[in-house]
Specification:
Elements (H helix, E strand, L loop, with lengths): L19 H20 L16 H12 L4 H20 L7 H29 L1 H19 L25 H4 L2 H18 L2 H6 L16 H24 L6 E8 L18 H15 L4 E5 L5 E6 L7 H11 L5 E13 L10 E3 L3 E12 L7 E4 L37 E2 L7 E6 L6 H9 L4 E6 L8 H17 L2 E6 L5 E3 L5 E4 L6 E8 L6 H5 L3 H31 L1
Parallel strand pairs: 1-2, 2-4, 3-4, 9-10, 10-11
Antiparallel strand pairs: 1-14, 4-6, 5-6, 6-7, 8-9, 11-12, 12-13
Helix pairs in contact: 1-2, 1-3, 2-3, 2-7, 3-4, 4-5, 4-15, 5-7, 5-15, 7-9, 12-13
């Protein structure tokens, strides 16, 4: 990377803004955030096309402020305003669990996102608009990749998720994963921006005569054609893939149960109308029996359906587990996957304990797990999977942040996890190998892909979305699962405590779903595909590539800044 002086921004003295000029940056920030919100699930699918122009107002905002000589601090503030409004409009429902946690999620997530915009600003300032605008999607997707893997992970607003309600537009996610959607979104937004802003005004940073007059808006037919092609070609490819794809694999009948136990009032000990654990179990068994058929081979119960704390090494001694074993013995050929809270013990040796392990004199070192339990035939030992993508501030909390834990009932704060993805084999149907995906884990494309790489032929999502009430939260969560179906070409069976439980086919189409906040169950045949998509075989390629490029761009930008300061000092001396 070398500095190209012909592309360097022309310094323009800051001028005081009046009238429309004063309000224009705020209006553009609001417009960009509103378009991102309007295009996001769970609004009608066609509105997802708004995402392809949603960043254009921000790009106009950034250029407008730069043209008028605004400081980097001022440019960042308006970028942060855009992001905070988008987070607020789209994920306000997080506050339904705790108000403080919801505010922190909006404010902090927007702050972290703004790092990508700040890096773009400084790269554009040092190297000019050509490399500057190219760096913006690189920085953004590098951040999205980071946000999928670090301890504050919260990828809910990964841009590729925005097409979940219109997944017929992105059937090519089986090759790129959902970060491919982020690339597409940024590419079209930048081309549309270039189409309405002349190359001359971008390179020379012409200051507009008025907020809405020339040269604020111009028209570049070459970029307009390029933008149109960048929309039509991926959509056409997606429609072609979707029209040719056929469900693959043998079928098996699966039953998902929705017990509808209020997490605020009924589910957990200490809540006002707590339902005893034995009664909750009977509700689950009754719903299961009412909808079971001789063809049913797998039953899914939601996350933490059995919320008493179960020690894994003595799991078979608990009355509820004995009751389940008896029920399964009376229904041969049926197997169960359910959520529960477990304890795994490591003994008194700290060296054998995990980094999240706690210690008690009577237990030694141990971990609490948000787990999935697999119960098969009478002579088959219980199988466990420990949730490993933990909700920050609720389950995954470093010790130094434990004071900020959001209590959602059950076991919260610093839960244990496991490094590998476990797949449960159903004995009666050798082709039925279920991925026990617990709640929040279904938001992670490469993570779910690891289950499939380990042999899963069905994605079984167990979740409790009742914390968010009847808000877009639980509906967004359901829609994101359709993207996992496309990326892996696996059917999805989803059991949610209060809804929405559903079945999703390999094209990401929701073929059956329950209502919200109703006590029910649903069954359907699922197809058990054994083929692996390109995305599953090769994993996430786009995110790591953007991270490598982002590091190079940041090093180049920092080096250019240091060299520039030295030149200034030398000239002054």
């Amino acid at each position: 990377m070398t500095n190209n002086p012909t592309l360097a921004p022309v310094a323009v003295p800051a001028t005081p803004a009046k009238g429309w000029a004063y309000w224009l940056p705020s209006l553009l920030a609001l417009l960009s955030a509103s378009l991102l919100w309007a295009g996001w699930p769970v609004h009608p699918g066609p509105l997802a096309l708004l995402l392809l122009v949603a960043w254009v107002p921000y790009l106009l905002l950034e250029q407008y402020l730069t043209q008028r000589g605004a400081s980097g601090w001022k440019v960042w503030r308006y970028g942060y305003l855009t992001l905070m409004l988008w987070n607020l409009f789209t994920t306000y429902w997080v506050s339904f669990s705790t108000l403080g946690g919801g505010i922190a999620a909006v404010v902090c997530n927007a702050l972290m996102m703004s790092a990508a915009l700040a890096a773009f600003y400084h790269t554009k300032k040092r190297f000019g608009p050509t490399l500057g605008y190219l760096s913006l999607p690189i920085y953004w997707i590098a951040f999205e990749q980071l946000h999928l893997h670090w301890f504050l992970t919260w990828p809910w607003l990964t841009l590729g998720n925005g097409f979940a309600s219109a997944n017929y537009l992105v059937q090519w996610y089986e090759y790129t994963g959902f970060l491919g959607g982020s690339v597409w979104l940024w590419a079209v937004n930048l081309l549309v921006f270039f189409a309405i802003r002349s190359r001359k005004s971008i390179i020379e940073n012409e200051a507009p005569a008025s907020p809405w007059g020339k040269p604020f808006f111009t028209f570049n037919p070459r970029f307009a054609i390029a933008a149109l092609a960048a929309i039509i070609l991926p959509v056409g490819l997606s429609l072609l893939i979707g029209s040719r794809y056929q469900e693959k694999g043998p079928s098996a009948e699966v039953l998902v149960v929705q017990p509808n136990v209020d997490p605020f009032l009924e589910k957990f000990e200490g809540t006002p109308n707590f339902i005893p654990h034995a009664e909750q179990l009977e509700r689950l068994l009754t719903l299961t029996a009412q909808h079971l058929t001789p063809q049913t081979r797998l039953v899914l119960w939601p996350e933490t359906s059995l919320d008493e704390t179960y020690f894994e090494n003595t799991i078979e001694t608990y009355p509820n587990i004995v009751r389940l074993r008896q029920w399964l013995a009376a229904h041969p050929g049926v197997e169960l996957v359910t959520g529960l809270t477990t304890v795994g013990q490591y003994g008194p040796d700290k060296g054998k304990a995990s980094p999240t392990a706690r210690f008690r004199d009577d237990l030694g070192y141990y971990d609490l797990f948000n787990a999935a339990l697999h119960l098969g035939g009478t002579n088959t030992p219980a199988g466990f999977y420990h949730k490993s993508r933990l909700v920050p501030g609720v389950e995954g909390v470093p010790p130094w942040l434990s004071v900020f834990v959001i209590d959602l009932g059950g076991s919260a704060g610093g839960l244990g996890s496991q490094p590998e993805r476990t797949v449960f084999q159903v004995a009666a149907v050798p082709a039925l190998r279920v991925a026990p995906v617990i709640c929040y884990e279904s938001v992670y494309g490469d993570f779910v892909g690891d289950y499939v790489a380990n042999g899963a032929t069905l994605i079984g999502i167990i979740t409790n979305d009742g914390w968010w009430s009847d808000s877009p939260g639980h509906s967004q969560h359901l829609q994101y699962a359709t993207l996992r179906a496309i990326e892996t070409r696996r059917d999805v069976a989803r059991s949610a405590n209060t809804g929405i439980s559903a079945f999703i086919n390999q094209k990401g189409e929701i073929t059956q779903q329950t209502g919200w906040w109703v006590k029910t169950a649903s069954r359907a045949p699922v197809h058990l595909n054994t083929e692996q998509t390109f995305y599953v075989r090769h994993g996430e390629l786009i995110g790591p590539a953007c991270q490598a490029l982002a590091v190079l761009l940041l090093l180049g930008t920092a080096t250019a800044a240091v060299v520039g300061r030295k030149r200034v000092v030398t000239s002054l001396n």
